[in-house]
């Protein structure tokens, strides 16, 4: 994806988050609190991640027609947008990792920039769509200067199959039912100067010590998506609306990458002490500490919008609402379509 698109999407996140936040080197924080914060964040993102993975392929036409014909029906395009997520549980975990979040807004955007393609069916009235998008870590010097070295990584791939129930005519709209699969993965992190320590105290005082660590949040989801859509062409406009349900198999957590040393005991001693206390221990090696928690869940959404149709060019504006947690989103897309 072009650097300008990656810059625009990354700056959206930076302006809303880390630009207003500082990173501190506080006294050692409890590793038990870090683990609880990671588990809570995974629960909070259980519906937000499947919702975000449904960005893209929300074309105005409920069905684009058959590929075999004159003209053959297909299209390619690009869309960009974001969904919102509440930052409460993220703040808790970021605080424990050493991030000053007092100015972090309550609502954060999860961005996406997506290349899309759709092709009409053969004989039967269906169409198939594919999408892929990414934002990669090193965004150029302008991004690094603005963010203080923040890195944003994001990838989204997916596809859907839609079957046309009502072809539509002068009076009736087009109606389709669809099923799709999406995979989305992302992370947001930075590097701290100095060190950061994590502690666990029972009858021994254990410490996990890092030096200039790279730390951040990370998430991943695979979703099965079901949707129904209705659309109606009106001169150069096509309004559309739909309902969707996504089941996400997700995990979320944190990572701390650094040369890691311990005091008070070995890595195994610390992990055993946490396990005996009923606390899920993080994965710890000589170069990384991380922990991820699985959380599956449904996200139910409404979506709709309007496209402006100029010959073979279509400009789409889509809004989305997540019934599961009250979050929302939107995309703007442009495509060539026959």
Give an overview of the whole structure.
This protein has 338 residues and is an alpha+beta fold. The chain has a single domain, classed as Lipocalin (Beta Barrel). 18% of the residues lie in helices and 53% in strands. It has 6 helices and 17 strands. The strands form 3 sheets. Strands 3-5-6-7-8-11-12-15-16-17 form a 10-stranded antiparallel barrel. Strands 2-9-10-13 form a 4-stranded mixed sheet. It is elongated. It starts with a helix and ends with a strand. Mean pLDDT is 85; it is low at 1-26 and 138-149.
Q: How many distinct domains?
A: 1
Total number of strands: 17
Measured as a percent range, the helix fraction is: 10-25%
Unreliable runs: 1-26, 138-149
CATH fold assignment? Lipocalin
Measured distance between first and last alpha carbons: 24 Å
As a whole number of angstroms, the C-alpha radius of gyration is 23 Å
CATH class: Mainly Beta
Task: Summarize model confidence as the mean pLDDT.
Answer: 85
The biggest beta sheet is recorded as:
10 strands, antiparallel, barrel
**Tally of helical runs:** 6
User: Pairing-aware structural class of the strands and helices?
Assistant: alpha+beta
Shape: elongated
